[in-house]
Design brief:
The complex is a heterodimer of chains A (151) and B (605).
Chain A lengths: L6 H25 L3 H27 L14 H4 L11 H25 L3 H28 L5
Helix pairs in contact in A: 1-2, 4-5
Chain B lengths: L2 H11 L2 E3 L8 E3 L4 E9 L2 E7 L22 E3 L8 E6 L6 E9 L2 E8 L7 E2 L2 H10 L10 H4 L12 H9 L8 H5 L6 H9 L3 H9 L5 H7 L6 H4 L11 H14 L15 E5 L3 H12 L3 E5 L8 H4 L8 H13 L3 E3 L10 H7 L2 E4 L5 E2 L12 E3 H10 L17 E5 L3 H12 L4 E5 L11 H9 L3 E3 L2 E8 L5 E14 L5 E5 L5 E4 L2 E4 L3 E2 L3 H5 L25 E3 L2 H4 L4 H19 L2 H11 L1
Parallel strand pairs in B: 10-11, 10-13, 11-12, 13-25, 15-23, 16-17, 16-23, 17-18
Antiparallel strand pairs in B: 1-7, 2-3, 3-4, 3-5, 6-7, 7-8, 8-9, 14-24, 19-20, 20-21, 20-22
The chains are: A mainly alpha (151), B alpha/beta (605).
């Protein structure tokens, strides 16, 4: 795993990760057969662009604020079975895919935090992990409200 | 005051009547019954009179020598001889003099007026007192099959109101001038109107009044969630339990059917335009009936071999007898509606092909695609979707295997996942088909259960267990890939979600195992993709449901309308019917040119 020496390096890494997510969703959007699923992936990509812009803003203006809040974990991404992207994916599959991707990002930043050489960098990683956790929660809530309707 | 109230008061408490001056009772004991006795004056002569049980001086059984249209000159207390005529109050209907007495109604003493004109049936309680007394008549329960017996059969649980219970319940209605209950009904049945007819013992008229807006009253009376629709808006419900509108609806619909009073309306103005309805569920049937009554030639296409959609394959016999569904469908057949079973639209014929032969198409196929939580082990043997389980049981009559061809899914320890009406239907079916232990696993608490309270109550009575604040995390199989257990996690309630219910959040490290040999997943349904596979240009939302103009039911394809669960996702029978009606109205406007005429009018303005 890559070693980081300062906050800028971490932010560059995170910005790159967000860009990869944008590319991933755009590829899925291109291959999706259903117009609405296509739009869904484009929306997901747009969200990742927003995340990326936010990080770039932080890097430029140095306005990095720590998020100390605890983010709820519905654990839906833990228990759902992995989904393989196909051109005929349904919206609920798309949600599972997205929440698992955010969960993976959360895990990555949490691991990096564990390995961080100093507490300042550790806090930056933890903050990024919390951010990813929020993104995951957004997808879990959508899944919770519309798939697990219990009727 | 209404007859039913007085009847009730008399039956339940015996109506005591007192003099407002000397406060002595007017009640006298006769040989085998009680009576209320007065003195009165007519044409200068003093006579003894008796009040009927309905506090009517001129009841047919009493022989008071007063001619029709004339009135008593005086009404007097037999004890203090004082005149009971009220100088300030006149009859609310004919303006004649009235006698004033005090009645004791359910531990309350209230002033009560009796019109002294023969032929007038006005009983005057002040409006406020009338309300007070009405509130005291409790909401009536339907007699029902004993739980120890009913878990061994599939017969309907409630027997329905008797005439007397129905009259009592109808008497509770406040007959509000601005009735909120009508607003709560998705098809706007004239609820006070039909209850008023019931109070006049005109049950047939009441049934006809409902049918002006609802073609399936016997079904809606049984399966509509009235407590969250019409009854939720009932004004009486603010201080007491609301009027049991659904039970009354069921009573009059059953009365009409049993007494063979159903009349098939003669359709005038028949035109040569043809309508195709895809799906014979409640929405399709409503749209079909409305269009047939407008004079169109209607054909309903049903994918299964039996008609009725979710009413037939989804709702069990013990909640909705199939003979009733059949009866309502026969009504439509007699209206001239044609039914084609075993026609899967999307494969046998596409929507485009239908449009070549029909002037308009209504899609009311429901949401029949099972939804799973997408967790590990859902493909194990003996893990069923509620759709498959109920279809096997209700439509294919698997519980009568081998008389019917479909084998019955069976388990000793059954777990049903979900908390809606469908979950209750699955659990109650399982207990009726020999499962010894049936548990409903639901991730929220009892207060948030989306099933009707009545269904939950019945399930509990029948011995169904509830494991609340619990969610499955995976299904565990045997070496032969059949279910042997289910891993669950305990939940706690967090912040409210979009539905207003508190969102369940898992409790860290609280996983535990429930042993079970059959699981039924009842967490929701989705849109079946068959129609869309051959009609990809039909605009849908991200969840796959059809996008329509909510005011007209029009889809993105000219001449194609849609409504019900295929538009809204899983909802109620009556909401599907409401959507069928909206589509029928706009179809008719368009096909008869009314819409164009309205537009022309608007442009002229």
């Amino acid at each position: 795993m890559k070693e980081f020496e300062n906050i800028d390096e971490i932010l560059d890494f995170a910005i790159n990760e967000e860009q990869q997510a944008v590319d991933f969703y755009m590829t899925l959007a291109e291959s999706a057969k259903n117009e609405y699923i296509k739009n869904t992936f484009i929306d997901f990509a747009k969200e990742e662009v927003n995340h990326k812009n936010r990080l770039m803003d932080i890097k430029q203006n140095g306005l990095f604020t720590m998020t100390a809040e605890t983010v709820a974990d519905l654990k839906i991404s833990d228990y759902t079975v992995s989904v393989h992207p196909t051109p005929n994916m349904t919206y609920s599959d798309a949600l599972v895919l997205a929440m698992k991707k955010e969960k993976a990002a959360f895990k990555l930043y949490s691991k990096l935090a564990e390995r961080a050489p100093n507490s300042e960098l550790k806090d930056v990683f933890l903050s990024l992990a919390a951010e990813e956790s929020k993104h995951k929660l957004r997808f879990e809530i959508e899944y919770d409200e519309f798939v697990l309707k219990e009727n | 005051m209404l007859e039913q109230d007085v009847k009730y008061l008399k039956f339940k408490t015996y109506l005591n009547t007192y003099c407002p001056f000397c406060h002595q009772s007017f009640n006298v004991e006769k040989k085998d019954h009680k009576q209320i006795e007065f003195k009165a004056k007519y044409k200068g002569e003093e006579i003894d009179i008796f009040l009927s049980p309905y506090l009517d001086v001129f009841d047919s059984e009493t022989s008071v020598p007063v001619k029709d249209g004339e009135f008593l000159e005086d009404l007097m207390c037999p004890h203090c001889q004082k005149s009971l005529i009220s100088p300030e109050t006149k009859c609310g209907e004919c303006g004649s003099p009235v006698g004033s007495v005090i009645i004791s109604a359910l531990s309350k003493l209230v002033p009560f007026f009796i019109c002294l004109k023969k032929g007038c049936e006005w009983h005057g309680l002040t409006k406020a007192d009338e309300r007070k007394i009405k509130l005291k008549i409790p909401r009536q329960d339907m007699p029902e099959q004993d739980q120890t017996l009913r878990i061994h059969n599939h017969q309907e649980v409630p027997y329905g109101f008797t005439t007397e219970l129905a009259s009592l319940e109808a008497g509770r209605c406040l007959q509000c001038k601005v009735p909120k209950c009508v607003e709560g009904c998705p098809v706007n049945v004239d609820i006070p109107g039909f209850i008023k007819l019931m109070r006049e013992d005109n049950f047939d008229g009441a049934a006809k009044k409902i049918k002006e807006r609802n073609v399936l009253p016997a079904i809606c009376g049984r399966v509509c969630p009235q407590e969250s629709q019409c009854e939720e808006k009932c004004i009486l419900g603010y201080k007491d339990k609301p009027v049991a509108i659904g039970r009354l609806e069921r009573f009059v619909a059953d009365f009409e059917r049993k007494m063979e009073l159903v009349k098939i309306p003669i359709v005038k103005n028949k035109n040569n335009k043809r309508i195709a309805i895809v799906g014979s569920g409640p929405g399709g049937l409503t749209c079909a009936a409305d269009m047939a009554l407008h004079g169109y030639s209607v054909t309903v296409f049903e994918a299964l071999h039996e008609l009725g959609g979710v009413l037939t394959y989804g709702i069990p016999e013990f909640r909705l007898p199939k003979s009733i569904v059949q009866f309502e469908i026969n009504f439509l057949k007699q209206l001239g509606v044609r039914f084609e079973v075993n026609h899967i639209i999307g494969t046998i014929l596409t929507i485009d092909e239908l449009l070549e032969h029909f002037d308009a198409v209504y899609i009311g196929v429901g949401a029949g695609l099972p939804v799973f939580a997408n967790i590990e082990g859902e493909s194990l043997g003996n893990v069923f979707s509620s759709n498959e389980y109920l279809t096997r049981m209700n439509l294919m009559k698997a519980y009568r295997f081998p008389e019917y061809d479909t084998p019955m899914p069976k388990g000793n320890k059954v777990v049903v996942v979900g908390g809606g009406n469908v979950a209750m239907d699955c659990a109650r079916t399982a207990i009726r088909t020999g499962s010894s232990d049936v548990t409903v696993v639901y991730r929220r608490s009892r207060n948030e259960l989306p099933a009707r309270e009545e269904e939950v109550h019945h399930a509990e009575e029948e011995g169904i267990k509830f494991k609340l604040l619990t969610n499955p995390t995976r299904y565990i199989g045997t070496d032969y890939s059949t279910l042997k257990a289910m891993e669950c996690i305990k939940m706690q309630l967090g912040e409210p979600d979009a539905s207003g219910r508190r969102r369940p959040v898992p409790i860290e490290n609280s996983e535990f195992i429930i042993e079970c040999d059959m699981a039924i997943i009842a967490i929701g349904t989705g849109p079946n993709p068959i129609i869309f596979s051959t009609t990809p240009n039909l605009k849908r939302n991200k969840w796959g449901y059809i996008d329509v103009n909510q005011e007209t039911g029009e889809t993105s394809i000219e001449g194609v309308y849609a409504g019900g669960d295929i538009v809204s996702g899983s909802a109620t029978v009556i909401e599907a019917m409401g959507a069928g009606r909206i589509a029928a109205n706009s179809m008719h406007k368009k096909l008869s040119g009314t819409k164009e005429k309205e537009k022309e009018k608007e442009t002229k303005k």
